[in-house]
Amino acid sequence: MKAFRGQMLAALILLFLPLSPVLAQRKKIIVDQDARGPASTDMQSILMFAQSPDVEVLGITLVSGDQWVKEEAAHTLRALEIAGRSDIPVLLGAEYPLVNSKEESEAWERQYGELAFKGAWTPRLYHPPDVVPELPEGNPKTKPRDEHAVDFIIRMVRTYPNEVILWAGGPLTNIALAIRKDPQVVSLARELVLMGSGFNVDKGGIHRINGRREFNWWFDPEAVRIVMSAPWKKITITPVDISVKTFLSDEIKAAIAKSDTPLARYHTQFAHGSYMWDEIAAAAVLDPSIITRQQELYVNIDIDHGAGYGQTIFVEKQVKVPSWWKLATVQFDLDTRKFYDLYIRLMSQPAPRPVEARGRN
Amino acid sequence: MKAFRGQMLAALILLFLPLSPVLAQRKKIIVDQDARGPASTDMQSILMFAQSPDVEVLGITLVSGDQWVKEEAAHTLRALEIAGRSDIPVLLGAEYPLVNSKEESEAWERQYGELAFKGAWTPRLYHPPDVVPELPEGNPKTKPRDEHAVDFIIRMVRTYPNEVILWAGGPLTNIALAIRKDPQVVSLARELVLMGSGFNVDKGGIHRINGRREFNWWFDPEAVRIVMSAPWKKITITPVDISVKTFLSDEIKAAIAKSDTPLARYHTQFAHGSYMWDEIAAAAVLDPSIITRQQELYVNIDIDHGAGYGQTIFVEKQVKVPSWWKLATVQFDLDTRKFYDLYIRLMSQPAPRPVEARGRN
Amino acid sequence: MKAFRGQMLAALILLFLPLSPVLAQRKKIIVDQDARGPASTDMQSILMFAQSPDVEVLGITLVSGDQWVKEEAAHTLRALEIAGRSDIPVLLGAEYPLVNSKEESEAWERQYGELAFKGAWTPRLYHPPDVVPELPEGNPKTKPRDEHAVDFIIRMVRTYPNEVILWAGGPLTNIALAIRKDPQVVSLARELVLMGSGFNVDKGGIHRINGRREFNWWFDPEAVRIVMSAPWKKITITPVDISVKTFLSDEIKAAIAKSDTPLARYHTQFAHGSYMWDEIAAAAVLDPSIITRQQELYVNIDIDHGAGYGQTIFVEKQVKVPSWWKLATVQFDLDTRKFYDLYIRLMSQPAPRPVEARGRN
Amino acid sequence: MKAFRGQMLAALILLFLPLSPVLAQRKKIIVDQDARGPASTDMQSILMFAQSPDVEVLGITLVSGDQWVKEEAAHTLRALEIAGRSDIPVLLGAEYPLVNSKEESEAWERQYGELAFKGAWTPRLYHPPDVVPELPEGNPKTKPRDEHAVDFIIRMVRTYPNEVILWAGGPLTNIALAIRKDPQVVSLARELVLMGSGFNVDKGGIHRINGRREFNWWFDPEAVRIVMSAPWKKITITPVDISVKTFLSDEIKAAIAKSDTPLARYHTQFAHGSYMWDEIAAAAVLDPSIITRQQELYVNIDIDHGAGYGQTIFVEKQVKVPSWWKLATVQFDLDTRKFYDLYIRLMSQPAPRPVEARGRN
Lengths: 361, 361, 361, 361
What we know:
The structure is a homotetramer. In chain A, helix 7 (173-181) packs across helix 10, helix 12 packs antiparallel against helix 13 (262-270) and helix 12 (250-257) packs parallel to helix 15. In chain A, strands 3-2-1-4-5-6-9-7-8 form a 9-stranded mixed sheet, sandwiched between helices. Chain A has 16 helices and 9 strands. Chain A has helices spanning 2-16, 21-24, 41-51, 69-83, 102-112, 149-159, 173-181, 185-188, 215-219, 221-228, 240-243, 250-257, 262-270, 277-286, 336-348, 355-360, and strands at 27-33, 55-62, 90-92, 164-168, 191-195, 235-238, 291-301, 312-316, 326-334. In chain A, helix 3 links the parallel strand 1 (27-33) and strand 2 (55-62). Chain A has a single domain (25-348), classed as Ribonucleoside hydrolase-like (Inosine-uridine Nucleoside N-ribohydrolase, Chain A, Alpha-Beta Complex). Chains in contact: A-B, A-C, A-D, B-C, B-D, C-D. Chain A binds chain D through residues 110-114, 199-202, 207-212, 297-298, 302, 304, 306-308, 311, 313-316, 319-322, 325, and chain D through 110-114, 199-202, 207-212, 297-298, 302, 304, 306-308, 311, 313-316, 319-322, 325.
């Protein structure tokens, strides 16, 4: 009888564990990404979240950008397999940006100069959207969910009102579509955090010394206009200006290579020197103290299809502007030592037990 | 015996009627509308389809435009109740256009002159999007379906590949969202038919003598750019230029008033003199011979947010243009007598038995 | 003594003849033209003024447009020699439009479709601006004045304040430059009359069925913006909409061919069937009763460099607009019989005695 | 006797020095300015040239910008009187920019946020263009020349082909008008040097942390497009990015205050702490070694009238661009010590003998 009671108690504890204060405080996050693979800034940011015990990744919603969405799905599924986190749902989202197109971008380049990087449209890397080449890191065995990324976003913010952080490391097409399909997404989300935009920086953008033409925002400017004009509770932006203060150096790679996890091996084999665009945006959610200087600004994007198409526009907080301008907290400096330490720890440590394994069974 | 055979034959005919070539040829149509009510050009076009034995209305997908989408749903449900066609699914779609907004339109008007009509944003008619005033024609007892208009469109074109006519009488927000959520909508649809745009006409638009600023297209220009740049099998356009050649006169109203159906009474009470914008677009599906002059043109829309925002742009077929321009068949003249006759007949006759009642039981 | 008085009187009369009521009423006009030759609509309008006893042509100021300005000068000088009006000063003006360029227009065409006519930039007719080919009508012996067209315009409106009609049959570059060099040109001129713009018409423009892209205005849109935003006492516009109601037919040519003047012979040899764009604008100055319908509208031009670049924009008079919109009287219909009669008479009759010959000597 | 000969020789050398090879190499310069007074960055740059023995200032051509052109003329004449250089011609130029206007700028600000400085249009400083308030430094006794600035520019480059440096410290309206009136200005000038534009800098512009909206270029964007698209032999740009590395400090003022010239007293009384925008551009002509880092870039301006209107656009030299983009040498860093020393020396020393006094008499 006592044994039975003990078993009952254990069962009850397990049963209610997800509701315990500790776990209830884990941040619920949807990671919306244009997840180039293997081992890009996109993928590393996904893996940081997957490796962190401090967030519950509700799902990874993919969007074309750095690559086409189907190829991204393969890389993401494979990376999660390697990290032992196939419990995290992966969902396919928008294949094309709202209005921008490969063809329009080529006409634009003839007028204003060739872009240095165009993601899935980059000529030297181009293949049709349905093609998924063999993956150097091995093809995945797992599959994406059947649900569309846009519907998943809507369902999650409705399931967990005021709890979900929408974290966007790619073009904002999925989030724009979700807003326009269900306008309440905006009021139901807890916060929007994104890597995108550029202010006054002479590198890190796709138009070379013009840092205001940042890839994520340029790929789908109209989506940015939709998303950035919506009345979110809070918007946090990691712009190019802070990205270029970081670098995934050989030293960082070497520190992670000391670990013998499959993930660390994947990192060692495929990661390469690069600004750590999305990793900063991820780190700032996991440990906000990493950011040492940020500023509230009105931020949006130029959507006229001339010289300025896809460039960040911004105004100081004290300036009177129409209500479609929204204030965002823009990160401008960080504690790189703290940031690199967090990154190395997350990429080196064993995967956390998935939520289901710990609480839901 | 002979009589029995005759009865058997009749029974067999009835039994297999739904499968007969005649019914199999009934056009499957999704009616996408910004259905102002009661008894507007929007609603009359819906009722023409509902009254016609020649089409199978898969559903009516609503979109904000002439009114907010929730108010439109009430009017549409009520009109279908009156017409005895509550079997037709009604589905709510986009509440807001993609990028355009009431606020932006007001800033635009301060620069380029007040617009004569702005649909749900018209100052003298304005109320918030969630408000549904009491309906003069009586509030509906039926409800819209739970499915979102965008998902319904996607599901139907996938259920009936190459069979579904997407017929759009309002802003193109729903169809644009459907395309961007599922790019295959374009190749799976049979045809796109729409009322919208304006060419060289000095009335019928919302900017008065400038007929190129047509309401449907102006309300969501970016949606038009998305939809009109997609590779549909066929695009048919009913522009303002042909609309203004028609008028819902007292004579037409009197002819319909001779009928004693609930629908005819509704028409008599609420319909008013107006160009018959959407009724032409509906009639041309039901009887293409009504159109007496049409022209293939490249047609799209100006989406720069200056003087031209929302204006139709167009080029002749023989001109070399980039591939984002698509050819559309644009209607420029009609046989008004034939058109009015069809309209009077449809609005006067009893409702056809719903599809389910005739074939599916 | 009496004889002396008589002589004195005669001398005084001769002295003050230019100020006599009759002559004082002759309208002083500067004809600003992109004078293609021989015998184009441009040249015919110049010749109508040169042939008319009702106007005093202060000078012909040339501007690149239909041809380069230097080639136009040769044709104009020759035409005036043939008409016996080499007393009229011919002055060279702007060689290039303010901002628009051949190169930009070619990039535009790649996006929005080839233009049917581009004046001096038309590929099949192109030669560099300094080249003046041999003239089929014979090369001129006279020369243009040394003064620049812009300075001549400024000097004349200052010499004859409130008397000078600025009549523009070509791009508005010269007038825009004059305004910006001397802002008082606007208040000192009596009236601005111009051929340009298009409203709702499916022919007569350079973009084929899009009549709003009219050549004169398209060639230098920024000049139009400058000129049309200035506070002239009066602006009168002859748009494409009225031009296409006329035609220089074989009958008209035959009627003129009955005359045996050098001018009539020139007309017979070189004039060809065409809308009579500029001839209407000239006729309406000479006999305003030719115009049977005109409307006051706010008229300006789209100067964003996208789809709408160079298109006429307009708003009705009753609409509230910012003060940069100015009201213009736009001609929409005419008495073609009266117009053709005037044209035939002017082109058939002998040249009027030059002003100098009648009054100033 | 020998001593006397020596003195004679010295006197003769002094006498004929203006004709010596050394002086023949004095750079001929036209200083085109929006010369706010008293003692602004505009005026200081004029005075640097006026004080320098190394340049021959052919004339100062004024243009509205920081103030209206008539008020600027009064300040400039007065400053030259104080400096003892009334021999330098002062010429009035454009009163208004080509297309931009106070009214348009106010509509723009309502959309994109109030500008911090608008020159003659700044609300707190505004008066009509014809008003010239009493000057705190005393009203001038001298007068501007009768010739228009535009004509002076044309005449000078024709008088001294390939010798004249067009130096522009204000909006480019005058130079744009000169080019369009006489296209040969471009090939006849020796070089274009200008203060204007901004790249990646978070101060120094008129839209606060957006340094790409620099006052001179913003005031007349279309003029910049015209001037920057022309095939000059050489274009040198002093952008905001380098301006903000300097400051007219109290120390510099104190150093100049040690001098007892009228000019030094004027400086002491009226100069105030400020970035030294135009002084750098002047210094770099007088002593190019002051600039320590410069880069060749394609530079132009956004002239669509939306969010980007008046912003600098630029592309690296190695990027393929259409021929309307021209390469400019853009200054990015300087030797501030050397710069301040030059400035202090020029503002402290006695005026050089005018050219006429030294050489032409």
